[in-house]
Amino acid sequence: MGKLPHTNNMKQKFDIIQSTCIPIQIDNCNTDLIIPARYLASTTRDPKFFGDAFMHDLRYDAEGNAVADFVMNKPEFAEAPKAGVHEIIVGGANWGSGSSREHAAWAIAGYGVRVVISSSFADIHRNNLLNCFVLPVVVSKEFQAELFETIAANPQAEVKVDVPNQTVTNLTTGHFEQFEINSYKKYCLMNAYDDIDFLLANKEKIEAYENK
């Protein structure tokens, strides 16, 4: 997939992310919901443009007014993501289904989210997220349901995602699960490398191999 515009703005080293969460309890939340098709033709290079388009047609009505009962517009979840606040989305099953548009990952990254937790992801979308410095974390349906229940009871509840140890913990209950991640992508996230950064970091090794 292509790079997120101005991807340097999104490059942060992944270690331990501890944050409140936005619960988007929509199964089969497809890429057309994540970012409507009309935004795909845009030529802007501004990540904020894509972030503002995230879940746009659920967040706003046809007149551009905020839909009060949509979760992202509720006062407890309306604050924009920042360190320790709403950096994590807990999504429904089969997150990112539908078309393979990379703009869906751009929108999530542009909004400021660093982790999406779900019981399952569409494969292409999952890879697009990783390429945009957003970590997709797969958990069991039971753990997913517990997270939704915990956040419903206390919107200030925090979840800890430990990338080095590949664990996700509900800090309210103390329950945790392991999650899988490709070792190359884990290395890149922990070093804030995209694919080109990785090659440049290994330039001397590559040159030495070529000289042989």
Structure description:
This protein has nine helices and seven strands; from the N terminus they run βαααβαβαβαβββααα. It has helices at residues 31-34, 47-53, 56-59, 103-111, 123-131, 141-153, 183-191, 195-201, 203-211, and strands at 16-24, 88-91, 115-118, 135-138, 158-162, 167-170, 176-178. It has a seven-stranded mixed beta sheet with strand order 4-3-2-1-5-6-7.
Task: Show the helix and strand layout.
Blueprint: E1 16-24, H1 31-34, H2 47-53, H3 56-59, E2 88-91, H4 103-111, E3 115-118, H5 123-131, E4 135-138, H6 141-153, E5 158-162, E6 167-170, E7 176-178, H7 183-191, H8 195-201, H9 203-211
Parallel strand pairs: 1-2, 2-3, 3-4
Antiparallel strand pairs: 1-5, 5-6, 6-7
Keywords for this structure?
single chain; 212 residues; alpha/beta; seven-stranded mixed beta sheet; 7 strands; 16% strand; globular; disordered N terminus
From the helix content, strand content and strand pairing, which structural class follows? alpha/beta
What is the terminal-to-terminal distance?
32 Å
Strand order of the largest sheet: 4-3-2-1-5-6-7
Radius of gyration: 17 Å
Stretches where pLDDT is under 50 for at least 5 consecutive residues are: 1-8
User: What share of residues are in beta strands?
Assistant: 15-25%
Q: Helical element count? A: 9
Note the overall shape: globular
Report the order of strands and helices: EHHHEHEHEHEEEHHH
Instruction: Report the biggest beta sheet as strand number plus sense, adding barrel if it closes.
Output: 7 strands, mixed
**What is the averaged pLDDT score?**
91
The number of strands is: 7
Helix-residue proportion: 25-40%
